[in-house]
Amino acid sequence: MRAKSRAGGRELGALLRRHREKAGLTLDMLSARIGKSTTFLHRLEVGERSATSETEVVHYMVACGSTYQAVDELVRLSKETIHDRGYRLCSSGQFMSDSLRSLVFHEANATRLVNYEPEVIPGLLQTQPYIEALLSREDIPVDRRQERVKDRLERQQILIRNRQAKFTFVIHERALRLEVGDYRIMTDQLYAMMFFADQWNISIRVMPASARHRALFGGSFLYLDHDKYSPMVYLDAALGGFIVEDRDYVEAQRSLLRQIVKVSLNEEESRMFITTLADEYDRAEGYWDDPWQVAQEQL
């Protein structure tokens, strides 16, 4: 039986609990300060409240001695998460975006994740040089790039830390052939992916260009399944992301995943494809460093 709670409610509750613990308060102590029962506060922190009002959030945060900026941030989140169909995450700003923060939270609580990427290497598999090349655009301030690189690399810890989760990545061939940075970066990136593919909980499958129009499935998305909660879908976009919980939509995306997998190469075929492509990049660059040493350094 899956618990009836919303993704936004769980995320909001986790942030509230973090502020309470930072303030050194127990549930009993906070209960005495704001006149709410510990049961009420516990349900608020685990996301089991059917709706969380702005007033409740303000009272909770003020009792914890939080700053105005922190209060305002959580009030905005509470507004976004009122409905059970999902919610929009704010754009990817200069600091660690709400979109990435929310994604990290929900990935950490999922038991199965399936990521379809038609344009670039999935974020969880990207090497540091690949990330740095992606973030080298002129619209990203230089003094913020390293901070964003660090945020993305820390997100990847879930591949190692959460040993119960299983990951499936379906990557279109054009994403593998899109040169990010230079040949050396692409060589390292592909060899690192081969190393990831050897992990027991990681499956990588390639969507071949030879499938032509049968390989057209729209933009990237991430399907997240949980033991305790209903599954959800994360949609990524250049200016932010969306968490979708609407049952009909999520079920439609699960059906789409079955079609995507059916058209993709199997794991062994995908491993051979990536190996061959890595060799092509390798020969083009004339790069003969030890690729497996590079791949292991990424972990």
Can you give keywords for this protein?
299 residues; 7 strands; alpha/beta; 13% strand; seven-stranded mixed beta sheet; elongated
Layout of secondary structure:
Blueprint: H1 7-22, H2 27-34, H3 38-45, H4 54-63, H5 68-80, E1 86-88, H6 98-109, E2 112-117, H7 128-134, H8 142-155, H9 158-161, E3 166-172, H10 173-177, H11 183-197, E4 202-207, E5 221-225, E6 232-237, E7 240-244, H12 247-263, H13 267-285, H14 291-298
Helix pairs in contact: 1-5, 4-5, 11-13, 11-14
What is the string of SSEs from the N terminus onward? HHHHHEHEHHHEHHEEEEHHH
How would you characterize the largest beta sheet? 7 strands, mixed
Strand order of the largest sheet: 1-7-6-5-2-3-4
Mean pLDDT: 81
Low-confidence stretches: 90-96
Beta-sheet strand percentage? Answer: 5-15%
How many strand units? 7
Helix content range of the residues, please? 40-55%
Cα radius of gyration in angstroms? 21 Å
Structural class: alpha/beta
Number of helices: 14
Multimeric status of the protein? single chain
What is the CA-CA span between the terminal residues?
36 Å
Instruction: Tell me, briefly, the overall form.
Output: elongated
